[in-house]
Each structure stands twice: as C-alpha cells, then as structure tokens.
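Weekly structure sync, notes
Attendees: PL (lead), two postdocs, one rotation student
Agenda item 3: pending single-chain targets
PL asked that the sequence for the first pending target be pasted directly into the notes so everyone works from the same version. It is reproduced below exactly as submitted, 222 residues in total.
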Amino acid sequence: MFRVLLIEDSFDLREEIKGFFSESGKDIFTLNIACDASDGLERVRNESFDLVLIDAKLNKETDPDTCRRLRESFSGPLVFITHLEDDDLQYVYSLGANDLIIKPFTPQDVFRKAMEYMEEDKKPSLSVLECGGIRLNPLTGLVTLDGKIIELTGKTTHILRILLENKPDTVSRDIILKEVWGEDYSGTVRVVDTRIKELRKALGRKQDLIRTVKGTGYRLKG
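Predicted structure, written out during the meeting:
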C-alpha cells in the first residue's frame, strides 16, 4: 500500500478527501491525517510515508520554518496545496515543495496527484549526490549542507549537480555553459564564474570544496 499523509486543518475538507480516497483508492492507498503542521511534522519524524500533502497557507499564514523542518525530516515527494500567485513560485519551491495543487481544487484533484506519485514511485529512483557534507537530491533539487537546507537558484543547483556527478574530475567552463544555458546561449563563460561565486558564498566555510582548475574549469574535492 502507498502511504499518504495529508496535513489539513479544515475538518470538512479532510473528511471530503478521506471519503474520496476510501471510495476510490481503498486497495491502493493508506491515507493518514494530521490536523496541523506540528502534528504532521511529528508524524513524519516517527512514521514512514511515500507522499506528504500539506495545505500550506503561504504569505505568512504558515510558518516557513515549519515547512523547512518538514522537508528536513521527509525526503520523499512533498506537495503543497495552496493559493498561488506567479511571483510565489520560487518562494514555494525554496521551502522544499516538489509540486503544487492550486486552490480551488476538488478531492479528485488530490487523488489524481497521489496516483501520479504512486506511478512515479515504481520507477527507479536517482541516488542522492554527496560530497563533504553537501547533499543534493536529484529528484527534488533540494540541497542541504551538514543537514541544513541551503537555497540556490535553479542554474546554480544545476552547476552543483554537474560537479557532484563528475567529482573529483574537472568540468570545463564550456561544458557547464552548454549543459546549463544550452547550445543557443550567446553569452560568455564568465557567467559560469559568477554562478560559482554564488555557490561558494552559499557553502560558506565549505566553499573550499570547489576547486578552480586554472584555464579549464572547476571540480569538487574528492
């Protein structure tokens, strides 16, 4: 059975979703309920789930630190149920979301999303990439340093992934430019150096793990 945790503070909505899962997915899913974020956090720390759905009222109504702690405790797919403006996308994903269900929604929408992840779960998973306390989950894009989430832009995360996948070998600036910005990018390799500076700053005292290979590119210390 595919274990799903729903974190939802509305009794009526919980009952609607619970009823739909019981009717349509009783032989597929085990739906577990948490009434608030604290309860949900406690459950993911003590139980095993394949998918977590959280009604994340953003814009200061839900404590961002609670969302981050939830992500630190749960490495699987985390789906936020939320109202959303386009400008909020980067913020939502910075909290650790893999996916979104946008309000207004129906219990069928939640069920379909759970089905998507159940089918995805049957596919081979990618291993977490690690080096010197840096961990990057290729499926979620989540980056942690010594267990704490660090926030990187999409391109900077992509560069880190390339370095992790190739460590301890050197990756040239040209290869990074081609893989991250694409064949049609007309800028210079200097943009790679700028992103490496951002990455080093984010890594703080671990920034020396990234070595510059003069005249060539960069590598991670093995």
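Discussion points:
- Residues 129-220 form a domain with the Arc Repressor Mutant, subunit A fold (CATH 1.10.10.10).
- The CA atoms of residues 49 and 56 lie 18 Å apart.
Action: rotation student to compare against the earlier draft before next sync.
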